[in-house]
Structure formats: C-alpha cells, structure tokens
C-alpha cells in the first residue's frame, strides 16, 4: 500500500495503524518532486490526502488515479467537508473518508477496497508464465520475477492475449490511459526493461517485437506471428 500525507506526524500515525492491521505500507514522497517513485513502486492501494499542499486538489486526485492505473485510490480528509469529499470522488478516488480520530473507519474502508479489487482480479498464464493479478506476482518456470508497476501492467495486458500482437496505441490506452500518442518512447523504454527482466537467463524469449504491428507474448518457442 502506498501512503501519502503531507504532514509527517499524521502520515506516521496512518502508517502505523495500517501496519498494525497487517498491511505493508510504503510512505511516498510528494508527487511534486517527481513521479518515478510512484511509477516504479508495486502497491495494491493508494491512500492519499490531496487537500493540504496542492492548490488544485482535483488535479492531484486525477493524477494519482492515473498513477494507480486501476488500483483503488482512497482519499482521506483531515476535516469533515462535503466539498472535499466531492472533489475526491469526482477526481477519480474510489472512496473518501474523514480520518481524524476515526482510524477504524479508515482501516475498514481500505480493507473493503482491497477486497473488492481482489475479487475482481484473478490469475493469468501463458506457457511457463504465471501472473497473480491479486498479489501482483510473476513467475516464469517457477522462478519469481519482480516487476515495477508499468512493466507488470504491460505484461498482464499481453498475457491476456498470448501469441497475438498488441499495438503500441492499444498499450498506451490500456496501461497509461492515453487515447493519443504523446510522441515519447515510453512504451519502448518499458518494453526494453520488461524484456530484460522476463527473458534474461531463460532458454528462449517470450516477449517479441512484431515489426510494424506491436508486441506479443509468446506462450512457447515459435508461437505467434513472425517478427
């Protein structure tokens, strides 16, 4: 679970309560200092307070909802404000709670979001590859492979259609929620990193570039369209 609260003492209080309830918690830096720690981290829920240090809390929530990439977002407010609750919900948060002196409700809402998210998830497989969408774990031939957020999402989307190519545009939409080409090489960079983690040390490559088409995950050697 990723946790962001701009006030250090309150972040520590929230983190301690969540850890006592059995959650693994990582306190995150402000997104204003860069998104790399958020994009490279693995988490199943994002808990944020967007109301204290951002001039536009709505934009903050929208940004974090995009970063979460289909993981649930729980917004917490330090005051009982209908306006703040509406900002969080309309910005893309899955739930919002006033948490001051109300830690049990925060824990209950976090647990509920995680439970619903996991019920909607499942397992994917392709040949010797196994993907646990609930715990975000990957194994190839029984060997665990640790993947950051974007690489995991790319692999999961490819594994849903093994031996069939997905276009760059389809991956931009599925992983980054972009309906347009931003003119960057983000897909190529993350695919290169994914290929290194997924194929290094194995007898044959699973991840392939299909020239002029996109990318494909092959379930066995020689499967799928030629490069």
Short characterization:
The chain has 227 residues and is an alpha/beta fold.
Descriptive terms for the model:
Rossmann fold, Arc Repressor Mutant, subunit A, four-stranded antiparallel beta sheet, five-stranded parallel beta sheet, 2 domains, alpha/beta, 227 residues
Major beta sheet summary = 5 strands, parallel
**SSE arrangement, N to C:** EHEHEHEHEHEEEEHHHEE
> Helicity range of the residues?
40-55%
Q: Quickly count the domains.
A: 2
Low-confidence stretches: none
Q: Report Rg.
A: 19 Å
Q: Determine the number of helices (DSSP H or I, runs of at least 4 residues).
A: 8
Structural class: alpha/beta
Task: Output the strand order for the largest sheet.
Answer: 2-1-3-4-5
Count the E strands.
11
Please report which band the strand proportion falls in: under 5%, 5-15%, 15-25%, 25-35%, 35-45% or over 45%: 15-25%
What is the CATH C-level name of the largest domain? Alpha Beta
> In CATH, what is the homologous superfamily of the largest domain?
Response regulator
